[in-house]
Amino acid sequence: MVYHYCRCCEEKFNGISNVVDHVVDCSSRVSSGDEDILTILIKDNRSKAVKQSKYFLVVEMDSKSDLKPLDSFIRNVWMECCYHTSEFVFEKDSESRVSYYSHADQMQDHHWQPFSSIKIGDKLTKADDRFIYSYDRQPVFGVLLKISKGSMNGKPVRLLARNEPIQFKCVECKKIAGFIDPESHNFYCDNCREENENTIEFDEMSNSPRVGICGYIGDNKPYVRKADRVNKRKSDQLDE
């Protein structure tokens, strides 16, 4: 069973829907301030049913921010490999067909606008407002969960929750996989990787919808709660 953690109170939840519902109103998030803070869910699946997603992020950011911080955050956590272009398309702009593009300063088309040209709060104004973010033409899907008063305390984007690494099974022996063949997108455990390393160039697994794509290599470490980190340090000290 895979649990997901609220990064605010560090409580664990069984199921994506449960942790997302909790994070929106987690009491540990409360901070004084009069800024409009957006709570945003970003997921790998277009479906409105959160449980249909394998990968998800819940973040918060100031409504007055432009799109650059969110682009940088998604790149750093999920996407970046070769500095590809990225794009935001908001549901509100479906009729005008305006896109916000990382390289818009190189273009002359009025349908493409730079990230700095808007505030995200101008596009996400009420719960369930949606957008599509694409990196190297690979889309993920965002939805506004809530607008609340508070303060970001100078942080551009703050991570509230993230799915724990997904346990895929080895295509050959069905053990837990740690590697992927980027050509076939089959998963392999360490032993089966060694048996095939002369014919397959493997990538390590990463906790990202971009795993196995374009040589992407990211983090696949599970979240460790502060109390567990402290207990481990104490245990290590006793063993010395």
Walk me through the structure.
The protein is of the alpha+beta class and 240 residues long. The chain has 2 domains: 3-162, MM3350-like (Structural Genomics Hypothetical 15.5 Kd Protein In mrcA-pckA Intergenic Region, Chain A), CATH 3.10.290.30; 166-231, no CATH class. It has 5 helices and 13 strands. It has helices at 16-24, 68-79, 120-123, 190-196, 226-239, and strands spanning 3-6, 12-14, 35-43, 56-62, 86-90, 99-101, 112-113, 130-135, 138-150, 157-162, 179-180, 187-188, 203-204. The longest helix has 14 residues, at 226-239. This is Ribosomal protein mL11.
Tell me the layout of helices and strands.
Layout: E1 3-6, E2 12-14, H1 16-24, E3 35-43, E4 56-62, H2 68-79, E5 86-90, E6 99-101, E7 112-113, H3 120-123, E8 130-135, E9 138-150, E10 157-162, E11 179-180, E12 187-188, H4 190-196, E13 203-204, H5 226-239
Strand fraction equals 25-35%
Low-confidence stretches: none
Q: What is the helix fraction of residues, given as a range?
A: 10-25%
**Looking at the structure, what is the overall shape?**
globular
Number of strands: 13
Mean pLDDT: 91
User: Please, how many helices?
Assistant: 5
The CATH architecture classification of the largest domain is Roll
